[in-house]
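Tutorial, part two.
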Amino acid sequence: MDEMNLVELIKDFADESKCRTYLERLRWPDGVQCLECGSAKVYRILKRNQFVCDDCSHQFSVTAKTIFHDTHLPLWNWFLAVYLLCESRKGMSANQMKRMLHVSYKTAWYLCHRIRAAMLEVAPEKLGGTVEIDETYVAGKKRRWRAKGDVSVVIGIRQRNGDLRLIRAEDVKSATVREIINANVGSHVEVIMTDESAIYPYALDKMQKNLHKTINHTREYAHGDVHTNTVESAFSLLKRGIVGTWHKVSAKHLPAYLDEMCFRFNNRKNPFLFRDTMLKLIDSPNLEYKHLTAKVQDAA
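Running the prediction step on this input gives:
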């Protein structure tokens, strides 16, 4: 059973061998296969938690060529961290993870970022139906409601009764917003809802303009079903995460936090979220610490 809660997590995985067995089941549901030649003629080396291929003699473990390889953390710590990030509605700070796992802040921060990197949706399906679009501004730090440091633009696109996209934009120029909309909204869109910002008449293409409806927020928040309340509720959740959980988010790492928020939001009704996140971790490339801490121009 892959539907998970905290009690089951502690009961089923507070043991390294149980974690390895679960990873093995996820990685090779039809039986262990050699990572070099793909052969199913594989035998166990029990004392070393490894396998050896009878055809090519290659030796490997269940964590080989995964994000878990050569980790200094017990697999149980990884499992608990994944569960906490999946189930924390407004996210979890590295400081909180540090206290819960009893590790250093550096270890907790790096662990959270590697899990966030695996949550990135690669080439997600474009949104359609009724779509709401809005923009908001995120400050790296606030003091008495005044922004300190860099302020980032975030474009929110949400399909009603569907998925959410949060994209950090370089600016709010029509060409930039148009590129973001076209990358995330498909031709099967039926209605596009925005406020009366001057951006959107220039950011929408000819077909999209014919589907465009606006709401004047100086007079009302909704006119029948014409509103942007659902995308604004996602902004509210994001900002509560920044203010109440992470406290400050750098412009460099903001896209990673946006990806985490979208992944968790879009899977909010998925009873197998823990399992699916673990599968993404198994398939994701390792994110090196030096890349995370590099300067923006070096990391690009």
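The beta strands are 42-45, 50-53, 59-60, 127-143, 146-159, 164-169, 185-195, 212-215, 222-223, 226-227. In part three we will examine how such features are distributed along the chain.
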